[in-house]
Structure formats: structure tokens, C-alpha cells
Specification:
Layout lengths: L5 E8 L3 E2 L5 E2 L3 E13 L5 E4 L2 E4 L2 E5 L9 E6 L2 E7 L10
Antiparallel strand pairs: 1-4, 1-8, 2-3, 4-7, 5-6, 8-9
């Protein structure tokens, strides 16, 4: 991708774990860097339909990486600031060459 000024981050939740006394610990959440991306504003407020449910979306994200499944929580960073946080609604092929 020629122009990719943003970073795509994906939320990763660890599985169940236990301390030394076998007491359950809450799952840990972390953000994994998936690489460069381009996050464009959706100025015309387009809608998409997924299984008959209509969604308004504010951003269109393009990246060259692995597939993100529907329901994955993502955030887009613009430098150190968070540009967008949302869930994916569709599983689509990526922009790989």
C-alpha cells in the first residue's frame, strides 16, 4: 500500500489462568499491532447490510495483512492518538499483492 499513515491494533484477550494457589485470574486484555493501514472518513454516511442488519459506518479501513473475522474489536491509531475504536462487521479479503 502506498499511503498508510495509521496503525491497526486488534484486541487480544488471554484465556483463563490461575495463580499459584489455583485461584482463577481474570482474563488479560492487550492490543496487538497488526501493521500499517489507511483509515478514511466516510463523509457520505454509507450503510452496509450484514445478514439483513443495516450498519452505519464512519470509517473505511484498508490494510495489507491477515484476515480479521467479524466481531473482532479493533482500534486505529493516528500517531499516539486513537482515531477510531469499533468491531468488524464483515470478513473480507485483504489488499495483498
Amino acid at each position: 500500500m502506498i499511503f498508510a499513515p495509521h496503525r491497526l491494533m486488534v484486541k487480544v484477550v488471554s484465556g483463563p489462568s490461575f495463580d499459584e494457589d489455583m485461584n482463577p485470574l481474570p482474563p488479560k486484555e492487550d492490543w496487538k499491532d497488526f501493521g500499517s493501514c489507511r483509515c478514511d472518513d466516510n463523509g457520505v454516511m454509507k450503510q452496509i447490510s450484514v445478514n439483513g442488519v443495516m450498519y452505519d459506518y464512519n470509517y473505511h479501513v484498508v490494510y495489507e495483512g491477515g484476515i480479521l473475522n467479524a466481531g473482532t474489536e479493533v482500534r486505529i491509531l493516528d500517531g499516539e492518538s486513537v482515531r477510531a475504536v469499533s468491531y468488524t462487521h464483515l470478513t473480507l479479503p485483504t489488499n495483498r499483492e
